[in-house]
Design brief:
Layout lengths: L1 H8 L1 H12 L6 H15 L3 H15 L5 H10 L1 H14 L10 H10 L16
Helix pairs in contact: 1-2, 1-6, 2-3, 2-4, 2-6, 3-4, 4-5, 4-6, 5-6
Length: 127
């Protein structure tokens, strides 16, 4: 419930945390969140930006699915897509609360014993 509420009330923070983890700390939560808000203000469809991170998540963790479906989910149900991606990363052992600062990515790597990729979860993101 907490994740869903955050994605609903502050999608830029949820997206920022997701993007920082997927970019392995090279992009900060603040920078990604700002881009998200800017795209939302200009186009009204922040899913135009965030759908690429869903595809990145699929590729990084070898999840089934396709780019077209990813974009459709973000365009029609942005909050649900962000919540699902956030939970997927949490289920893989990443601490999203420390992932929103640059040092957070490095702390997550150390937490997962130096692995650049969290362990595979059998029942991962399915849609």
């Amino acid at each position: 419930m907490k994740t869903c509420c955050m994605a609903c009330l502050c999608p830029c923070i949820a997206f920022g945390r997701i993007s920082e983890i997927l970019d392995k700390g090279s992009t900060s939560c603040g920078a990604s969140g700002a881009r998200y808000i800017l795209i939302m203000c200009i186009t009204g469809f922040p899913g135009l930006y965030s759908c690429f991170y869903r595809s990145k998540l699929r590729k990084q963790y070898r999840l089934k699915g396709g780019c077209c479906g990813d974009c459709m989910r973000h365009l029609y149900c942005e909050i649900c897509a962000l919540t699902q991606e956030y939970r997927e990363l949490q289920n893989r052992g990443l601490d999203m609360s420390i992932g929103y600062i640059y040092a957070g990515w490095h702390a997550n790597v150390e937490k997962n014993q130096g692995l650049a990729m969290a362990p595979v979860v059998e029942k991962g993101m399915s849609k």
